[in-house]
Design a protein that fits this description.
By secondary structure, this protein is α/β, with parallel strands linked by helices. It has a domain of about 280 residues: TIM Barrel. The chain is built from 13 helices and 17 strands. The strands form 2 sheets. Strands 1, 2, 3, 4, 5, 14, 15, 16 and 17 form a 9-stranded mixed β-sheet that branches. Helix 2 runs parallel beside helix 3 and helix 6 runs parallel beside helix 7. The longest helix is centred in the middle third of the chain and has 18 residues. It starts with a strand and ends in a 20-residue tail after the last strand. The structure holds zinc ion. The site of zinc ion (ZN) has 5 residues, from loops. Zinc ion binds next to loops.
């Protein structure tokens, strides 16, 4: 008799099968095409499909001195509402997570308050000795000023000394300082510089929010096995025309011409990671020109909607929001297999709904897709065997824990 059995359809070995998953001690203990006996049974609905837990590798949860914009609680509630079981927390907070003391403070602000699992980033900008000691889960380098302002004056040195996987915001500082429109060349130039360093240093690097066809072509032709990159749903679905109509869509890197958006779709199969770059601000801060778009509560739904429109497949979501993040960052014990943590995203592929940011958990209170009718939605989020979100309601306490990311050297929560 298992502690918990989930019955229904699930995405297993690239196919949708009907069967049962048993959970004991927060981990998957058995997977069967038949039925299994459980003390508790969760029966999925006919339209629901269980996926391995989806991970967003690029999220700004604010907190600290910016609790008006978002907190660990509100941001991770938004994450599980959107169907994510884990988020990667970006360190350009106020104050930034750029020294050991602030990193430990960041850990404390997550412990017991996070609804989703999490990995914590450390901002590297001429602070190598601090980076070496912090024991962060990943390292973030800004090549140009962005939200928070702190950026790397010497990218190669900071990348070289980072003791783990690096996520890089690649825009050229010289160009963005003289041209506030942050033109495509700013991204292409910085990406070329990052690729040159990656070729030489041969260490894991993840280029964030690639938005231009030019940068994409540079990356794809480099063929470095230790290289990953992210694309956001907003760069896949919106263009500069949308931004001209709605100044709230200001974001770094900016929304691009249709030709760039199309380049992303044409190379969809070669995009390793889709991540939201969830960047919440208050409405007042947005009106004053803050850059950033919230995305945690729409990204999975937008991708499911894209599946319903024939633009991608369920396997793409699993690959780009689970398998590749797990592999690139080295997250332990994840996946649909016995022995892995029981972290699941359940989606209702046929569910129609209208985006109403007033019903969201994020403090951002707006969405580029407000009023849009979408088909497909995350219907339950299950973390370590605990149903955390069900039909838009948060139904558990904050059960999120720190992910075990290879190389971070930590064991346990604090
Ligand atoms: Zn970001």
């Amino acid at each position: 008799m298992h502690e918990l059995v989930i019955e229904g359809r699930f995405f297993y070995s690239k196919k949708i099968i009907h069967g049962s998953i048993a959970v004991d001690g927060k981990k998957i203990s058995a997977i069967s095409a038949g039925s299994l006996k459980g003390e508790r049974i969760v029966r999925l609905k006919r339209k629901e499909i269980l996926l391995p837990g989806l991970i967003d590798t690029h999220v700004h949860l604010r907190d600290f001195e910016e609790r008006k914009k978002e907190t660990v609680e509100s941001g991770t509630m938004a994450a599980v509402h959107g169907g994510l079981t884990a988020v990667f927390d970006m360190p350009n907070t106020r104050p930034p997570v750029a020294d050991g003391k602030t990193f430990r403070k960041r850990l404390r602000s997550f412990a017991g308050k996070a609804y989703s699992n999490y990995a914590l980033g450390f901002l590297v900008a001429d602070n190598c000795s601090e980076a070496m000691e912090a024991g962060a889960d990943f390292y973030k380098i800004f090549m140009a000023p962005s939200t928070g302002g702190l950026y790397s004056e010497n990218f190669e040195a900071d990348y070289s000394c980072s003791p783990g996987a690096v996520s890089v915001h690649a825009e050229d500082a010289g160009i963005v300082k003289t041209d506030p429109t942050r033109p495509p060349e700013a991204e292409v130039k910085a990406v070329k510089r990052a690729l040159n360093a990656a070729r030489r240093l041969k260490k894991p690097i993840n280029i964030c929010h690639v938005s231009t066809g030019g940068a994409l072509r540079e990356i794809l032709s480099s063929r470095l096995p230790w290289l990953s990159f992210e694309v956001t749903p907003h760069h896949l679905l919106l263009t500069e025309v949308d931004y001209r109509r709605n100044p709230m869509l200001k974001v770094y890197p900016p929304l691009r011409p249709e030709v760039d958006r199309r380049a992303l779709w044409e190379n969809l199969s070669r995009i390793p990671i889709i991540a939201s770059d969830h960047a919440p601000h208050t409405i007042e801060d947005k009106a004053a020109g803050a850059a950033g778009i919230p995305g945690l509560e729409t990204e999975v739904a937008l991708l499911l909607d894209a599946i319903n429109r024939g633009l991608m497949e369920l396997g793409d979501i699993v690959e780009k929001m689970h398998s590749n993040p797990v592999r690139f960052f080295g997250i332990s014990e994840m996946g649909l297999r016995p022995g892995a943590w029981a972290d699941f995203t359940v989606v209702d592929i046929g569910r129609e709904w209208v985006v109403k940011p007033g019903e969201f958990y994020s403090k951002a209170r707006w969405s580029p897709w407000e009023g849009r009718r979408l088909r497909g939605k995350a219907s339950r989020t299950i973390i370590r065997g605990e149903v955390v979100m069900e039909e838009d309601e948060i139904v558990s306490k904050a059960v999120g824990v720190r992910l075990d990311v290879e190389g971070s050297g930590h064991k346990g929560d604090l």
